[in-house]
From TrEMBL:
This is Cytochrome P450. The chain crosses the membrane at residues 395-415. Belongs to the cytochrome P450 family. Coiled coil: none annotated. InterPro entries: Cyt_P450, Cyt_P450_CS, Cyt_P450_E_grp-I, Cyt_P450_sf, Cytochrome_P450_Monoox. The keyword Membrane applies. Keywords: Heme, Iron, Membrane, Metal-binding, Monooxygenase, Oxidoreductase, Transmembrane, Transmembrane helix. SUPFAM superfamilies: Cytochrome P450.
C-alpha cells in the first residue's frame, strides 16, 4: 500500500523523464548488473544485459515472445502491420517473402545508386557559397539516406518528397515519447497528449505518399527491378502467394522509415566522433584513398573498407540508432534463475549493454580496434546488438552498413566537419537515438578539392 502510494507520488516525475528520454528512466544497475528487475505500478519489467541470457531469450525462446504493446502503440498508426510491427504467421509470411530482397548480391547491386546519392550531397555542399555556416548534420544525412532509399526502392515513381516526408517523420517520432510513456503506464490509447493530433496527421501523410507511389507503379503495369518491384513480384516461398496491397504499403513505408533515419543517425554520430578523434579520422582517410574517384561505386572496393567499417561499428556501440529491443512474453519463460511470466515485458537495453561495465573495457572510450576480427572473435556476439539478433534481426543490416561506407567514402575525403559546440549533444530516445538539439557542425571543403 505504502509502496503504491510512493509510486503514485513519483508518477509525474517518472512520466516526465520517460517522455524526455526513456533511457534516463532506466535503473542505474542496468549498466553494471547482468539482469535487473523493476516493479512500477504493479508492472514487472526485466532488463537483460547478460549475453548468454540474451542469446537464450532472443534466439532459443523467440517463439514465446511478441512485440511489446507500447512499441506497437507508437508505431502501428504509421507502419500498419508490416515486418517490423507484425507478429506470428503474418510476420513469418512477410519476412520470408521479403528476405531475398536483402540478400548480399542485391545489396551490392544498389551500390552505384548509393554512390550517386552521396555525390549529389557532395555537389550540393560544394556549391553552397556559405561554407562557414553551422548546419544541423542530421537533416543533411537524412536527405542523403532518403535519396538512397528513393533510388533503391522506388526509382522513377516516387511520390515521396524529401522535405515534407522528413518533417512528417520528425513530427511523428517527436510525439512517440508520449505514446510510449503513457502506454507503459497502462493509460488507455485515447489519452490526450501533446503532439497527438499532429502525429496522426503525419502518419496519414506518410501512408498516403507511399500509397500513391505504389499506385503509380502498378498503373505502369511493369513492376521494375528496384525494391518496390521486388516487393510487387515477391512470392511466399511456401504458399506461392504475393503480398496484399495493404502489406506492400506497410512494408514499403517500414523500409523507408526503418531504413533511412537509422542509417542517417549512424552517419551523423560517426561524423561527429571522427571530428573528435583526428588520429582515427586520418586512418579512415588513408583507407578511403583506395576508393577515390569512381571506385566508390564498385561493391568490391567498398567491401575492402575494413577499418572504416570498424569505425561505424564502434560508433553504433556508443550511439546505437535503435537503443532498445523490447519483447512481451506470450508464455511463462525461464531466464537464468528467473521466470518471466506470460504478459510481462523483457527489455534488452542495447544502449546500456554497449556501455556495460562487465562487458567492455573502459566502455566510454571510443576505440574502433574493438572491432578488429580478433577482438570480435574473443567476445560474445550477443554483447553487441545494433541490429538485434535472432529471427527478428534487422533485415536491412547489410544494406545499412554498405550505405554508410559508400556515403562516408564520398563525403569524408571532400569535407572536414567542425562541431559548433564542444560538448557532445546528449543522446535522446525517440524510438531511435537522436542527438538532443541536433548535431550542429560547420562543413568545410578540404584544400585542393
Ligand atoms: C544503421 C541502420 C539500422 C539500424 C541500427 C537498424 C536496427 C534494427 C534493429 C535493432 C532491429 C531489431 C528490432 C527488434 O528486434 O525489436 C531492426 C529491425 C528491422 N529493420 Fe533495421 N536497422 C537499420 C537499417 C535498416 C534498413 C536500411 C532497413 C530496410 C531498408 C531496415 C529494416 C528493418 C526491418 C523491416 C526490421 C524488422 C525485422 C523483423 O522484425 O523481422 N533497417 N533494425
Amino acid at each position: 500500500m505504502r509502496e503504491t502510494l510512493a509510486e503514485a507520488v513519483a508518477l509525474p516525475s517518472v512520466l516526465a523523464t520517460m517522455v524526455h528520454s526513456l533511457i534516463e528512466a532506466w535503473p542505474a544497475p542496468v549498466y553494471t548488473q547482468p539482469v535487473v528487475t523493476t516493479r512500477f505500478l504493479g508492472t514487472r519489467t526485466t532488463y537483460v544485459c547478460d549475453p548468454r541470457l540474451i542469446h537464450n531469450l532472443l534466439v532459443d525462446q523467440a517463439g514465446s515472445l511478441e512485440r511489446e504493446r507500447f512499441m506497437l502503440r507508437a508505431l502501428t498508426p504509421a507502419l500498419g502491420a508490416g515486418i517490423l510491427t507484425a507478429d506470428g504467421a503474418h510476420w513469418r509470411e512477410q519476412r520470408r517473402t521479403a528476405a531475398p530482397m536483402f540478400r548480399p548480391d542485391r545489396v551490392r547491386s544498389f551500390v552505384p545508386a548509393m554512390a550517386e546519392a552521396a555525390r549529389a550531397t557532395r555537389a550540393r555542399w560544394l556549391a553552397d557559397g556559405s561554407p562557414g555556416t553551422v548546419r544541423d548534420i542530421l537533416p543533411e544525412m537524412m536527405r542523403t539516406t532518403f535519396d538512397v532509399i528513393v533510388a533503391t526502392m522506388v526509382s522513377g515513381d516516387s511520390r515521396l518528397e524529401v522535405g515534407p516526408f522528413g518533417r512528417a517523420i520528425d513530427t511523428y517520432l517527436g510525439q512517440t515519447g508520449w505514446t510510449i510513456a503513457l502506454a507503459m503506464l497502462n493509460m488507455p490509447g485515447w489519452t490526450p497528449h501533446p503532439g497527438r493530433q499532429a502525429g496522426a496527421e503525419a502518419a496519414r501523410y506518410l501512408r498516403r505518399s507511399v500509397a500513391e507511389t505504389v499506385a503509380r507503379r502498378t498503373a505502369r503495369g511493369e513492376p521494375g527491378s528496384d525494391l518496390l518491384g521486388l516487393l510487387l513480384q515477391a512470392r511466399d516461398p511456401e504458399t506461392g502467394q504475393p503480398l496484399s496491397d495493404e502489406s506492400i504499403i506497410d512494408n514499403l513505408l517500414t523500409f523507408v522509415a526503418a531504413g533511412h533515419e537509422t542509417t542517417a543517425l549512424a552517419l551523423t554520430w560517426t561524423l561527429r566522433m571522427l571530428a573528435e578523434h583526428p588520429e582515427i579520422e586520418n586512418r579512415v582517410l588513408a583507407e578511403l584513398a583506395s576508393v577515390e574517384g569512381d571506385r566508390v561505386a564498385d561493391p568490391e572496393a567498398v567491401d575492402g573498407l575494413t577499418y572504416t567499417r570498424q569505425v561505424v561499428m564502434e560508433v553504433m556501440r556508443l550511439y546505437p540508432p535503435a537503443p532498445l529491443i523490447v519483447r512481451r512474453a506470450t508464455a511463462d519463460i525461464g531466464l537464468g534463475d528467473r521466470t518471466i511470466r506470460s504478459g510481462e515485458s523483457v527489455h534488452v537495453p542495447v544502449y546500456a549493454l554497449h556501455r556495460h561495465d562487465m562487458l567492455w573495457d573502459a566502455p566510454q572510450r571510443f576505440d574502433p580496434d574493438r572491432f578488429s576480427p580478433e577482438a570480435v572473435a574473443a567476445r560474445s556476439r550477443y554483447a553487441y546488438l545494433p541490429f538485434g539478433a535472432g529471427p527478428r534481426v534487422c533485415i536491412g543490416m547489410g544494406l545499412a552498413l554498405t550505405e554508410c561506407l559508400v556515403i562516408l567514402a564520398t563525403l569524408l575525403p571532400a569535407f572536414r566537419f567542425v562541431p559548433a559546440k564542444r560538448e557532445m549533444p546528449a543522446a535522446q530516445f525517440r524510438v531511435t537515438l537522436r542527438p538532443k538539439g541536433g548535431m550542429g557542425m560547420k562543413i568545410v571543403a578540404r584544400h585542393g578539392r
